[in-house]
Amino acid sequence: MLLDFIKDKNKPIHFIGIGGISMSGLAEILLEKGYKVSGSDMNESNTTNKLTKMGAEIFIGHNKNNIKDPSLVVYTAAISKDNPELIKALDSKIPTMDRAEFLGQLMKGHKFNIAISGTHGKTTTTSMMSHISIKSDLDPTILVGGQLDIIDGNVRTGQSEYFITEACEYKASFLKFFPYIGVILNIDADHLDYYKDIEDIQNTFSKFVQLIPEHGYLVANLDDEKMGKVIDSAKCNVLTYGINKGDIKATNIKFNDKGCASFDVLRNSNKLFSVNLNVPGTHNILNSLASICTSLILNVSSEFIIEGLESFYGTHRRFELKGVKNGVTVIDDYAHHPTEIEATLNAVQNYPHKKIFCVFQPHTYSRTISLFNEFTQCFHGIDELILADIYAAREKDTGVVSSTSLGDKIRKYNIKCLNIHSFEDIVDYIEENMSSGDVLLTVGAGDVYKIGEMFLRK
Q: Considering 28, 85, 166, 340, which one is annotated as catalytic?
């Protein structure tokens, strides 16, 4: 059976926070495999409605009465210890498991687990690898942190021994995985509400590398200066990549009028093939090289690598073209870290435009305060910046930092920056100040994408 540790297959597996992108994906996999599933979430959504249609029992709101003698309760890192369902499960001595550990147990049932990690680019690279693996008929199980058209969602249940998933470093959750190929895209300072500093983050990635068996592979971005220490910890095979350094490199790089790159792929100075990407930015060259390395390890032919990459036009919320209204192009991106924002703004510079208006919604108070100075330095090259209020996510406002205080510091660098507190007022400002040929870029990991949608509908 898929989950040998489940003692009673006639009882459901219950997910607290089942509407989340990763939790819902895990629930879908189980439903496809014939398991009973129940779950709760604070809000009804398209995701919860889909799970209901698939046969899951869904509860809206968290209540101890939602726990009806399940075989196992799975919860996310965002679930607090005072959650009534979690308390009920613990008091009733029902087995519990966090999301990362449960995903690790799912991976145990596959031989070729591909775990794609890194501070930035996990969803895009996992999506690229998904395209390649489907084009090459590997028939993988896939779990991706975004909506991907080729799998009509964020999850695919395959029948093979291949399993492709994102491996998130938040709270060191990826240390509960069982990778055969571990990919590290980059290492940057983030989640500093959990990690002490960048050295602590590097050490955690080193622990991730040590999970890879000796016959397995580490795929690592050698252009990242923080990668050396991590690579040195590897006791497995290593394949590196980069634009400037690495076993696999991109050369003869050219960008088209949409900012998408074409380039030659070299292995130790020998040309393997050429690729034309349909997603913009230099960062996506590196993401594609990571998926190329992984594909070469799996002996995927160049034909399918090329076909997979060239058929990939992006994941929802990753430089996603939302529409055009009155000549104004609306693009949305999930970037929520200064490094990601810089990469997104570099990509949009190559997009046809007169002026670029960027609406940024900071994500969490802890990230905003820990990277405050970096956020003040990453918005160069745009014509106007509009700051929405901070998206709290799992946190409470302590009054230590605000979007207004961030805006005050940014304005000192002579960047035209406005703080506008409601989405409706932001849309009104956009209507009055943008004209044909301009680009509206909404940026952030919260619900800032709604602003572009509101503008397009209005």
A: 166
- The strand pairing partners of 97, in sequence order, are 74
Going by pLDDT thresholds of 50, 70 and 90, the confidence category of residue 409 is very high
Catalytic residue among 122, 135, 249, 322: 122
Q: Is residue 361 classed exposed, middle or buried when 0-12, 13-18 and 19+ CB atoms within 10 A define those classes?
A: buried
Q: Choose between 350 and 429: higher pLDDT.
A: 429
Q: For residue 65, is pLDDT > 90?
A: yes
Q: Which of 123, 141, 315, 364 is catalytic?
A: 123
**Residue whose entry in the numeric block shows the structure tokens 């055009």:** 324
Please name the residue ranges forming H helices in 266-333.
Answer: 282-297, 302-310
User: Hey, what are 335's tokens?
Assistant: 């970037």
CATH topology of domain 320-457: Protein-Tyrosine Phosphatase; Chain A (3.90.190)
- Computed from CA positions of residues 87, 88, 92, 95, in that sequence, does the dihedral angle turn out positive or negative? negative
Provide the CATH number for the domain formed by 13-102 in this structure. Answer: 3.40.50.720
The whole-number pLDDT of residue 1 equals 41
pLDDT tens-digit readout, 355-365? 999 999 999 99
Q: Is 123 a catalytic residue?
A: yes
C-alpha closest to that of 166 among 216, 114, 213:
114
pTM above 0.90, yes or no: no
CA atoms of 249 and 264, how far apart (whole Å): 8
List pLDDT tens digits, range 382-395.
999 999 999 998 78
